[in-house]
Specification:
The protein has about 200 residues and is mainly β. Helix content is about 10%, strand content about 30%. The strands form 6 sheets. Strands 1-12-6 form a 3-stranded antiparallel sheet, with no helix packed on it. A hairpin with a 3-residue loop joins strand 13 and strand 14. It is globular, with a radius of gyration of 16 Å.
Length: about 200
Amino acid sequence: MFGWNSHDAATEPRTAEPSGAAEGSDAPLEAGFLAGTYVATDTGWRAVELLAVGDLVMTFDNDLQPITNLSRRTVWQRGQDIPQREWPLLVPVGVFDNGYDMLVLPGQGLMVESDWGQMAYGDPFIIVPVHALEGVRGIARQRPQRSMEVITLELEQDNLVYAEGGALMHCAAQGSASGAMLAPRQAAFAARSLSA
């Protein structure tokens, strides 16, 4: 009806440009878990900043998987002018089975179930960078008020990790880019199907 289901998915790349260049900048959009995010582990829900290499996290497809690499960095230094495209997004409680409001980096992949994904790829479960979901179901950017630690978890293979009570967040395989995420054009189609 609106033409967004009529594209030929076979002629367009499904996955994102690892450099982030397709988003209008040479710099990649931030991905990773913000400190304070709780993830499912073999010992229950734990704050991501308390995890270490070797800890087991609960994944969507592969049960418990060990963290093979973990990195930490600080973002949003005090007094720094932060471009709006880099602001985190607030995902309200319940939008993606999350039991709590979630503050998520714009480049972080989030699994969504979409009729469009089923039609385009034969799989209703697709990984969308959260920035593509801005405006959907109350998801909105929030200006960072303070510096925060970002924790990036890597597993043996690409996986989806349970966060904040039920949301599924993408974790790349060690040493790989986020190739499982939809490319910007496909992410936009998926977002429109969720808001319809």
